[in-house]
Amino acid sequence: AGAIPTVNGEVLAEQAVNTDQSHGRFDFLLDPEKTGRYTLVDLKSISSFGLKKRMEEGAAPEHCAQLCRYFLKLKDRYPIDHGTIWYISKDGKPGLTDLECRVTFDDELIQSTRADIEDENSAWKNYLTTKNLPPMLPLEPNGKAHWSCRYCSLVQNCDKAHQIGNKYLPGLTT
Hints:
Layout: E1 6-7, E2 10-11, E3 13-16, E4 25-30, E5 38-46, H1 48-57, H2 61-74, E6 80-93, E7 96-103, H3 107-130, H4 160-163
Parallel strand pairs: 5-6
Antiparallel strand pairs: 1-2, 3-4, 4-5, 6-7
Helix pairs in contact: 2-3
């Protein structure tokens, strides 16, 4: 009888929340008090440097948006009160092991996330009818692809010259 609940024999952990336009997998829903109200949890392994930054700045906006996407896909199936992004240090330096950031699914976050989803859906529909891709998102300063590229169904068709060899987008080849 752990904190990760089951509903009709279904464990509420590591489940895909996919659509034709996007994919993802939430880590788990918690209900430690067994109230029937859930906390949506996303685990993020992070370097101690990154963890220190999160301790100073709070949850990364893109992680909040990702968790909100899961919330929007799950809210009609499960009563979710809030979310938690749980950052866990990969290298476990003393004093830098983990951080829990509470995420409130307020109107601003929901509206911003829905606008992003609408933009992506519009780009997807445009691609299906015209085969024209949306403009390529710029690389992040560290050379990584924009975080949202990893969750986009168009990534395999994107500007491959820009993306090939980027270890953060596995599976892309010439």
